[in-house]
Design goal:
Largest sheet: 7 strands, mixed
Catalytic activity: a UDP-3-O-[(3R)-3-hydroxyacyl]-N-acetyl-alpha-D-glucosamine + H2O = a UDP-3-O-[(3R)-3-hydroxyacyl]-alpha-D-glucosamine + acetate
Keywords: Hydrolase, Lipid A biosynthesis, Lipid biosynthesis, Lipid metabolism, Metal-binding, Zinc
Strand content: 25-35%
Cofactor: Zn(2+)
Structural class: alpha+beta
Distance between the termini: 30 Å
CATH architecture of the largest domain: 2-Layer Sandwich
CATH class of the largest domain: Alpha Beta
Pathway: Glycolipid biosynthesis; lipid IV(A) biosynthesis; lipid IV(A) from (3R)-3-hydroxytetradecanoyl-[acyl-carrier-protein] and UDP-N-acetyl-alpha-D-glucosamine: step 2/6
Protein name: UDP-3-O-acyl-N-acetylglucosamine deacetylase
CATH topology of the largest domain: lpxc deacetylase, domain 1
Radius of gyration: 18 Å
């Protein structure tokens, strides 16, 4: 059955790119509501922004959604990944600014908050999007693909010049809380040489060594080092799950990303929904639901490092 969070939970932090203080509250919502963001700092007009693939606007370094009135919310990928990874299908997310808080750079604080409140079942079945034929998108530097699979699965490959990251590959079945155990605590990362350019472009103004992994060559500059030897590819998978959560329902299929990012994952959703024969919407019985992220997950599964 569809779910929502049992009671509201509020997070306080800073926007990674804006550098501004921000408050975000996840509230329960009814069946068939889906996930919506509400800009509570705006007094007049349409303040509601749908967390949906066709509301995404091209934006460097993060996922940004915008409604028809021009109201936007950015850096939504970590909270969206937390909701998807905890199996929450319906929520109202109130935010008092144009960007979600970065917190520690991962989804773990959101996951901890959601699971501390608990998840409540609603009186409506989950509708999943089952991939039945492969769909892919390509750029000069990478590609992403969705293929048929029995559950929600992911394979990702990255390759960076910096030895602290280098070449990393990971394959993961996201069923039964694997997102919470394996991915949720992995933080966003960047190269030290890119920070000055990002800030000159008005980005990463709220970035610190505490909310991002910063590398230079073979050195990890952030205190405490890495949470996982392959933390970078795990975070790319976290981002991908958050971006795929904009599909409007959990995806039954294999997502593969080769040097992929936010824009490519969104382009892949556009390609999927532009190809009606590539997918079908299915009602989830218990067998199907058990193959989705968040099934039966508990607070004890959050990694100790987070």
């Amino acid at each position: 059955m569809q779910t929502t969070i049992r009671s509201a939970i509020t997070f306080h932090g800073t926007g990674l790119h804006s550098g501004r203080p921000v408050r975000l509250t996840i509230r329960p919502a009814g069946a068939e509501h889906g996930v919506w963001f509400k800009r509570v700092d705006i007094a007049l007009g349409d303040r509601m922004v749908p967390a949906r693939w066709d509301a995404v606007e091209t934006s460097p370094l993060c996922t940004l959604i915008r409604n028809r009135a021009g109201v936007s919310v950015s850096t939504i990928e970590h909270v969206m990944a937390a909701l998807a990874g905890c199996g929450v299908h319906n929520a109202l997310i109130e935010v008092d600014g144009p960007e979600c808080p970065i917190l520690d750079g991962s989804s773990a604080p959101f996951v901890r908050g959601i699971l501390s409140r608990g998840v409540r079942q609603l009186e409506a079945p989950v509708r999943a999007i089952e991939v039945v034929t492969p769909v892919s998108v390509h750029t000069s530097g990478g590609w992403a693909r969705l293929s048929p699979a029995s559950g929600t699965q992911m394979a990702f490959h990255i390759d960076f010049d910096d030895a602290a990251i280098g070449r990393q590959d990971k394959v993961l079945d996201l069923a039964n809380g694997a997102f919470v155990r394996e991915l949720c605590d992995s933080r966003t990362f960047c190269r030290a040489r890119d920070v000055e350019a990002m800030r000159a472009a008005g980005k990463a103004l709220g970035g610190t060594y505490e909310n991002a992994v910063v590398v230079e060559g073979d050195q990890v500059l952030s205190p405490g080092g890495l949470r996982h030897a392959d933390e970078a590819v795990r975070h790319k998978m976290l981002d991908a799950l958050g971006d795929l959560a904009l599909a409007g329902g959990p995806i039954l299929g294999l997502y593969e990303g080769h040097k992929a990012g936010h824009a490519m994952t969104n382009a892949l959703l556009h390609a999927l929904f532009a190809t009606p024969d590539a997918y079908r919407v299915v009602l989830c019985d218990e067998s199907r639901a058990a193959r989705l992220p968040g099934w039966g997950v508990g607070r004890h599964e959050i990694p100790a490092v987070a």
